Amino acid sequence: MARIAIYPGSFDPPTNGHVAIIQRGLNLFDRLVVAVANNPQKTPLFTVEERKAFIAEAVGNDPRVEVDSFDGLMVEYARRRGIHTVLRGLRAVSDFEYEFQLANMNKKLLPEFESVFVMTGEDYFYVTSRLVREVATFGGDVRGLVPPNVAEGLQRKLKK
Ligand SMILES: Nc1ncnc2c1ncn2[C@@H]1O[C@H](COP(=O)(O)OP(=O)(O)OP(=O)(O)O)[C@@H](O)[C@H]1O
Ligand SMILES: [Mg+2]
User: Fold this and answer.
1) Catalytic residue chosen out of the listed positions 18, 52, 88, 133
2) Is the pTM of this model over 0.70?
3) Which ligand 1 atom is the nearest neighbour of the CA of 128?
4) How far apart are CA 44 and CA 132, in angstroms?
5) Which of 20, 31, 85, 130 has a CA 20 to 30 Å removed from the CA of 138?
6) 3-class secondary structure for 41-79?
């Protein structure tokens, strides 16, 4: 049976940190469903469709990677898809507390649910979407921190 995991996130925008987690996730799982959260409470920089396109392109349209989006609870999405494993990345201590809460809450909501964590390497441990948005907004160079298509997308979006 194929091993499949969901890798959920905002991906606003996807960074090289996200891409590294996807690549490493593919060493653990046969397939990944990268699921872009559509959170109506947040005003994103990029639309869900833009974020999905960035991810698909950044992984070279790898057939093992499905890119989708979801509204509402991630466990409901997982239940609907029949996938009970979630992949998450861990950066510093700051990620731990939130991820620990989330993993336990998800297990409470869906007992068969398991969270698998991949720890980021030294290259991208400081890279967050929020920081990338801030740096790019003030004209800083984010090449090397995000895939080339995202760097172009940021330039296009922020020139307006
Ligand atoms: N550089 C990175 N290294 C390892 N894991 C990461 C990295 N960036 C994000 N992740 C992980 O990917 C998942 C989805 O993250 P998310 O889309 O919220 O990105 P983010 O960078 O935290 O965005 P934001 O700054 O908007 O909160 C989370 O598990 C997060 O910890
Ligand atoms: Mg975050």
Assistant:
1) 18
2) yes
3) 21
4) 13
5) 20
6) CCCCCCCHHHHHHHHHHHCCCCCCEEEEEEECCHHHHHH
